[in-house]
Amino acid sequence: MKSAPFEYVAPSTISGVLEILGQNDPDEVKLMAGGQSLMPLLNMRLSRPALVLDLGRVADLDFIRETDQGVVIGAMTTKRAVEDSELILREHPLFWESTVAIGHPPIRNRGTVGGSMAQADPASEYPAVALVLEAELVAVSARGERTIPADDFFVTYLTTCLEPDEVLTEIRIPRLAPRTGWAFQEVARRHGDFAIVGATATLGLEAGVAVEPRIAVFGAGDRALRFPSAESLLAGQPATDEVIDEVAAQVAAAVEDPLDDAHASADYRRHLAGVLVGRVLREAAVRAAEASTGA
Amino acid sequence: MAIEIPKNLDELPTTRPRYVGRGIRRVEDVGLLTGRVEFVDDVVLPRMLHCAILRSPFPHARITGVDTQAAEALEGVAAVVTGEDARRWSLPAQSSPEGWGTHCIAGDKVHYVGEPVAAVAASSRRVAEDALELIEVDYEPLEPVADPFKAMKPESPQVLDAQETNVMLDRVFTWGDVDGAFAEAAHVFQEKFRWNRLGANPTETFGCISEWDPMSLDLTIHGSIQSPGMFGLGRAATFSLPSNKVNIISHAHGGSFGGKGGTRGCDISCLLSRKVDGRPVKWIEDRGEYLLSGGGQAWDRHYEVALAVDAQGIVSGLKVGLVDDLGATGEAYGAISAAKPLAAFTGPYTIPVAQYDLKLVATNKLPCGPYRGMGPPPHFFVLEQMMDIAARSLGEDPAEFRRKNFIPADQFPYTIASGNEYDSGNYGEVLDQVLALSDYSALRAAQVEARAEGRLVGVGVANAIEPGVFDWNAYAIVGMPGTGVPEGATVNIDILGNATVRVGFSLEGQGQYTLVCQLVADYFGYEPENVRVVQLDTQSAPPSFGPGGSRLGVAITGAVLGACERIREKMARVVAVLMQSEPENIEFMDGKFTLKGAPGAEMTVAEVAGTMLARSDLLPPDIDPRPEATHVWTAAGRTPADEEGRAKSYLTAAHAVHIVQVEIDPETGMVEIQRYCLADDCGTRLNPDTVEGQTEGSVVQGIGAALLEEYVYDEDAQPLTTSFMDYLMPTVFDAPKLEMVAVETPSPFTPLGAKGCGEGAIHTTPAAVMCAINDALAPLGTSAREVPAAPMRLWKLIKEARERASDENNNY
């Protein structure tokens, strides 16, 4: 299990990265963040780039900052740094909770936020959380910088809208509205595994009525999925068991072509999507109710 | 002179054992855990090359051409071997049922995905893997067969060209009047079960360095080898070499659990070494190779079982039908997994008659190898489900139903229907202990409450026999040559009194070096630090099998105590001369030789050893002055198998009862283990900490079997679980907190009364977890008959049961 031969570079600045991308056929270059997905692919010779461009030494990509709008996380920030961040725990407990569901400490020590986003594994936790938090992803290339809403970023299996010459640099997570409830749950065969299916939601409550619900599911389809029609069904309704069951059923029905593999059939995944959406909505509603009573 | 080996702790020459029977800190752990011991991949030999193996992507295909020219031309490549070299220099594997072995590299045909088709020796593993990509193999795909039931049909694709069928063995073994028992039974219960393929996954995979000198024909193999002696014999047979030309140097290794067969890769590295004039060739199996094509897949089984029960609820007969899918060749002794259940076929019960309808079938999957437990764990899974089915149907508590079928404590030694003799046991006591530990009635009360809330909470009570100290006669029904029980040790006391014990097995993590230190320390009045254990290669070591078949703890105890006894006897003769008396007047206790009736006249072992090695002038004339002795221990009273496979085979029968509480999430099918209690009885516990460690590890492997582990093949025999992303080993998060209690019923047949305990809990855990799951599902009128109980499977069962119930309601 040794990789095919490749060249290796580790520039220390973003401009250095862009320069190298400009000098090479970008399709022949593989960017490496934490390497937690790429290294096995290289060693199994499933990925055979001519050049591996290691982002590990690019200094200005590893940060967590608070801004007026919310929190900004550098693409090369490790999951461990997120886990250890009091700012994330305080401002985005949902993001924190999804982080500790990823793998195990050795994986989080190396795996990065940007790496997971750019890898876009359909069963990965971060893309779904980015959807419900309405995060924005910032990419740069020699052509300049662009800001991409999470909704547009994840395209399909292991595919984002990033161009081959673009580098993801940061993830911007807007501040949640006050008293927003949130929840994150997944079904995985073992703690730390990629989820079979997971779900996450945020929700406000005003006089028992759901405000601005956001729902996302991962592991079910070709990418993390958000469900605007189910959200509209819930918005303005009392967050009762009955309503939530109806919303969950609509989500289950709306999953197109669920994944089907040795561990979980398409049917089972569709069913789990509904079950988990029901559970996260109930949990988020409890949190929202607690927040509004100041509990 | 006959050697008397102490049968219990009181017979040791010490006032009170200070080490044996106690949990002392293990001498080998630091080296193994810090990696300071030399593992085979640490070994670098002069002019060494590295091997990589090209493997078949097809489950079944004709090979019409292999072009190695481009690979041979790559810089750094020293040699390439193909099936042609294998046929020239080696014989087919002899570890399969007769006639089913194949060469280590495929010739005209590949029989499973991952079968070697060529291999390269190069300056580095990386170059060797680069070279593999330059080898061109022309395949003509053939129709594969993945299902053993299809494979048994005459129109099935034929796996091996040399055979006319895919059925390796088809025999019914009958022990007693089984038809009569079923005809007279008040109740007969029948069920089918599926145990999916799983297996050993040691931390370190197999690895070796082979040097085959083409001039002398000496073959030397360094390796991470579980059974070096038997491995060496296998290589001698495969390469038609005299057995004394093959020397195996086994290194400390990171576990085995039976999964270190490794013979194909090793044989390939031998062929490469021969081709490069004897240069050493290293082959380290990587995890991908291990999961795809290693020695770690086992027990791919389809069962059909029937239980006869009389009007009093006593089980009167057992029929087990097993279709055992051994994959393409059943090599590396995988087939004996189907034979071993004979050593404990009827479990802890008095079931007087039994039948085993056994079919060993070849398919286009990886050959099955050995795994911890070697066959009985699935057997007990089905037996214990049947016991629960009977108890539930008769309205009896599963614990009490088992109790009334137990072999009574006063009936030992007890011969079971399938021929083996159990040495000792007190099954009722073991059950009582775990019932008390778990507060069983409280568990049942909590279950009633949970069920009232609609929760799926279940309690499993299951037990099993762990056959210990194997003998090859146990496997007579599958007819493969092998070696059995003898285990030797040489104990040497040096001129300053320090002890060195030379053994033939390597460190694997089970704590046997510590055991050797404990034994010598208590025997000679030493501290464990005075004792050093050294492993010898197979050409230097006394006869040794090593760990396997839950034997080494018992066997090495016999060997070491026998050697100590011989030294004591020799020293007593020396002391008698020095004290001007006769040997029969010399007593030995707590490390001191004393003269009967002469207080104050004493010599320590060190003083005697120093005298023997330094003072010729004081020695009796006929004495061999070396304070050293070798003893080879073997099990007494074993018998050859009769026509129906019945034999006194495994020497000991350990027993355990596990009680497990689970809750199933009905919406997801996920199982949570809430309590895990067990009581076990493996006779005298030579090192209780080691027994606990073995038990803990084995419970976790059993949980893996019950809930997680499964090698999945699609219907075209393509493997779908080829990495740890898909093959799910339990992690620390899946390990419940264990509550354990011990019962000690010494064996009357073994040194110090110890029983084999190394395979341990995996015999019971899958059964216990599945009993708990089925107890949880019982109110729904459904049950799980397939392991692992993956969440999707349970969800489906629950959903179907609820749909049935709602249909029935609608019909009313």
Which residues of chain B form runs of ≥5 with pLDDT under 50? none
CATH first level of the largest domain in chain B: which class?
Alpha Beta
Estimated helix fraction of chain B: 25-40%
The number of helical runs of chain B is 20
Largest interface: A-B, 26 and 30 residues
Determine the CATH superfamily of the largest domain in chain B. Answer: Aldehyde oxidase/xanthine dehydrogenase, molybdopterin binding domain
Kindly report the CATH topology of the largest domain in chain A: Uridine Diphospho-n-acetylenolpyruvylglucosamine Reductase, domain 3
Any overview of this molecule?
The complex is a heterodimer of chains A (295) and B (812). Chain A is built from twelve helices and 14 strands. In chain A, the strands form four sheets. Chain A has a five-stranded antiparallel β-sheet with strand order 4-5-10-6-7. A four-stranded antiparallel β-sheet of chain A has the order 11-12-13-14. Chain A has helices spanning 14-23, 38-43, 79-83, 86-91, 93-100, 105-110, 113-119, 125-132, 150-153, 228-234, 241-254, 266-293; strands at residues 7-9, 29-32, 51-54, 64-66, 70-74, 136-141, 144-149, 154-156, 159-160, 167-174, 181-187, 197-206, 209-218, 225-226. The model of chain A has no long low-confidence stretch (mean pLDDT 96). Chain A has three domains: 7-57, Uridine Diphospho-n-acetylenolpyruvylglucosamine Reductase, domain 2; 59-174, Uridine Diphospho-n-acetylenolpyruvylglucosamine Reductase, domain 3 (2-Layer Sandwich); 181-293, Enolase-like, domain 1 (2-Layer Sandwich). The relative contact order of chain A is 0.11. In chain A, helix 5 (93-100) runs antiparallel to helix 8 (125-132). Chain B has 812 residues and is of the alpha+beta class. Chain B has a seven-stranded mixed β-sheet with strand order 3-5-1-12-9-10-11. In chain B, a hairpin with a 6-residue loop joins strand 9 (207-212) and strand 10 (219-223). Chain B is 28% helix and 23% strand. The mean pLDDT of chain B is 96. Chain B has three domains: 9-37 and 486-633, 2-Layer Sandwich (Aldehyde Oxidoreductase, domain 4), CATH 3.30.365; 40-142 and 202-256 and 261-293, Alpha-Beta Complex (Aldehyde Oxidoreductase, domain 3); 301-400 and 410-475 and 640-807, Aldehyde Oxidoreductase, domain 4 (2-Layer Sandwich), CATH 3.30.365. At the A-B interface, helix 12 of A face helix 4, helix 9 and helix 20 of B.
